[in-house]
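Issue 218. Parser rejects a valid record. Input:
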Amino acid sequence: MSSLRIDDLCVSYGGVSALRHVSLHVEQGEAIALLGANGAGKSSLLRAISGLVCSSGSIAFDGVLLGGRPAASIARLGIGHVPEGRRLFARMTVRENLALGCWDIGATDERMQGVFALFERLRERADQVAGSLSGGEQQMVALGRALMGSPRLLLLDEPSLGLAPQVIAMIFARLGEIHARGTTMIVVEQNARAALSFASRAYVLENGQVVRSGNADDLANDPTIIDAYLGGVIE
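Output the parser choked on:
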């Protein structure tokens, strides 16, 4: 059984289609990359899975249909979402932001220690307000907040956005550690090279539709993909 199966998914905003009849699957333990230009529908796909936008079609997680469920209920099923732009509460501390991600109150302290073990910098910044942190530190908090829910499926929307190269390398290294523990992942990334290096398979979205899919290594060496998303250079 697929960890996630999406069939004929459609999403519209005010009559404008963001996703049109999208179908895809993600097996348990996979890391999948979603590629596409701005406006292709990548973020809308993640938001539909999380129950943050209305959609038609079918989304099933471990055989459970997600349609019509509130976002909080979907999170409790084991789906964590790291949104584009981090969406932290700037005036709350790191510790408070992390605690908001844990719906199991009794597990808060233990899970927070797990986040601090993954991101030691956050242990040092625990009582600092999130708005005072660097961009990289804020991304660590956003990722840590999602991990506080102990997700089996982690949705990541532009985790490298606006970060320095060395910070991007660190974030993807930590994501590799999380994935190695068995967490299934879907990664939306403008940094297509980093995404394809990290993932095992990828889907390409254009104008709200899946136009390509396949093994990440094969796509990374495909001239069409290289020209469109990898700067036209084969490394």
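Fixed in the parser; the record now loads. The first helix runs from residue 42 to 49.
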